[in-house]
Amino acid sequence: MGMISIDIRGSFGALKAEKFSAMEGGHAFALTRAIQFLLSQMQEAIMRDHQLHAEGEKPPKSDFGMLP
C-alpha cells in the first residue's frame, strides 16, 4: 500500500510533518486527507506571503506563482 509524506519547513514556520497511508482507507482516501492537510495550511501561507512582501521580500515571479 502507498504512503504520502508531507514535510513543511523553512520560511513556512514551524516544522509540520504528516503522513497519510493507503492502509487506513485506500489510496483515494489517503490522497484526500493529504489535500485537506495542505489546504488547511493555505491561510497561513497567504498571510506569510503578504508579510514578506510588505518587508520587501518576494519570489522571482511577483504574481506569487499564480497558475495560468
Task: Considering the chains and any ligands shown, give keywords for the structure.
68 residues, alpha+beta
Kindly describe this structure:
- By secondary structure, the protein is of the alpha+beta class.
- The chain has one domain (3-54).
- Helix content is 40%, strand content 18%.
- The chain has two helices and two strands; from the N terminus they run ββαα.
- The chain has helices spanning 27-40, 42-54; strands at residues 3-8, 16-21.
- It has a two-stranded antiparallel sheet.
- Strand 1 (3-8) and strand 2 form a beta hairpin.
- The chain is elongated, with a radius of gyration of 15 Å.
- It starts with a strand and ends in a 14-residue tail after the last helix.
- The model has no long low-confidence stretch (mean pLDDT 87).
